[in-house]
Write a structure and sequence with these properties.
This protein has about 120 residues and is of the alpha+beta class. It has helices at about 5-15, 35-45, 110-120; strands at about 15-20, 25, 50, 55, 60-65, 80-85, 90-100. The chain has a single domain, classed as TATA-Binding Protein (2-Layer Sandwich), CATH 3.30.310. It contains three helices and seven strands; from the N terminus they run H-E-E-H-E-E-E-E-E-H. The radius of gyration is 14 Å and the shape is globular.
């Protein structure tokens, strides 16, 4: 039986590319504001994020995401925040760590990709 939500999650995980400053998600961009909202709702639901109010620009969409209270390891029990960016001009989707510098590991994009992989394993 075909499970579309499992397919969405595996597509995201296989499309992750961690750089020094962000986690790129190399998937096709949503083609309308409605499709963007649907994609973000699906992403936040599957990966246990709470979205803030989105910020729409002429060719971009940004929203702050707050994680569930569980980081990628048992010692990481605090929620973290990252910025989800979709830019049509750059044809890119990525996540950037945000927050206080003293938070440490949550400022590392690898932390975000580890969290996404951990959440995917729960699906």
């Amino acid at each position: 039986m075909h499970n579309p939500s499992h397919h969405f999650v595996t597509d995201i995980i296989s499309a992750l590319h961690t750089t020094q400053n962000s986690v790129q998600i190399a998937v096709p961009l949503p083609m309308s504001p409605l499709k963007t909202e649907q994609w973000v709702n699906q992403f936040t639901s599957h990966f246990s994020f709470q979205p803030s109010q989105p910020d729409w620009g002429a060719d971009r969409y940004q929203v702050v995401l707050t994680s569930a209270d569980q980081g990628p390891s048992t010692s990481d029990k605090k929620a973290f925040q990252c910025l989800l960016c979709i830019e049509w001009l750059c044809e890119a989707i990525w996540l950037e760590p945000i927050g206080n510098e003293h938070v440490g590991m949550t400022q590392n994009p690898g932390f975000i990709s580890d969290y996404l992989r951990q959440q995917a394993a729960l699906v």
